[in-house]
Write a structure and sequence with these properties.
With about 160 residues, this protein is an alpha/beta fold. The chain has a single domain, classed as Nuclear Transport Factor 2, Chain: A. The protein contains four helices and eight strands; from the N terminus they run ααββαββββαββ. Strands 1, 2, 3, 4, 5, 6, 7 and 8 form an eight-stranded mixed beta sheet that branches. β3 (about 65-75) and β4 form a beta hairpin. It starts with a helix and ends with a strand. The model has no long low-confidence stretch (mean pLDDT about 95).
Length: about 160
């Protein structure tokens, strides 16, 4: 279940990077909730797909890389993924520190698969602590340079 959760998180970021609203929404339960970087909320697969289709049509979205900090089994059928992420603007090869984020994904079992019940993407602003922004950017740059979308190396794993 732990590895499935990491794969689900990777699938979510990959769908974003491919600008595929349908694939992004498909990672969610039918009533899943996505909370965006700006605090916007999308409730349910249809709303997630529709809003992201609009975003992808209207904006040149940046691509994600993520680093899993922890994966915690919270119940027999639930997992919490805590990660950090950075974004590379289209046409560039480096991260934009202003878009670094802390992410939380709660996944639940649906049949044999895991699906996202809640995904929250929070700015890693670190107000007044630029050294933390620099540290996080350097850490995420390592993931970017590796060519991976997500790294789970050194993640704290709790099988519950």
């Amino acid at each position: 279940m732990i590895q499935q959760a990491i794969e689900l998180y990777t699938e979510l970021l990959d769908a974003w990077n491919r600008r595929d609203a349908k694939a992004f929404a498909a990672t969610f339960t039918p009533v899943g909730i996505a909370i965006g970087f700006d605090g916007s909320q999308m409730n349910g697969r249809p709303a997630i797909e529709a809003e992201l289709a609009r975003v992808f049509a209207d904006h040149e979205t940046a691509s994600y890389v993520g680093k899993v900090r922890a994966v915690v089994r919270i119940s027999r059928d639930g997992v919490l993924v805590h990660a950090v992420a950075g974004m590379t603007p289209r046409g560039t090869s480096s991260l934009n520190p202003a878009t670094n984020a802390v992410q939380a994904l709660v996944a639940v079992r649906e049949g044999d698969a895991l699906r996202v019940a809640l995904f929250q993407n929070t700015p890693a602003a670190f107000h007044g602590r630029p050294e933390l922004t620099e540290q996080l950017t350097a850490e995420l740059t390592e993931v970017l340079r590796s060519g991976a979308i997500v790294s789970a190396k050194q993640a704290m794993i709790n099988h519950g």
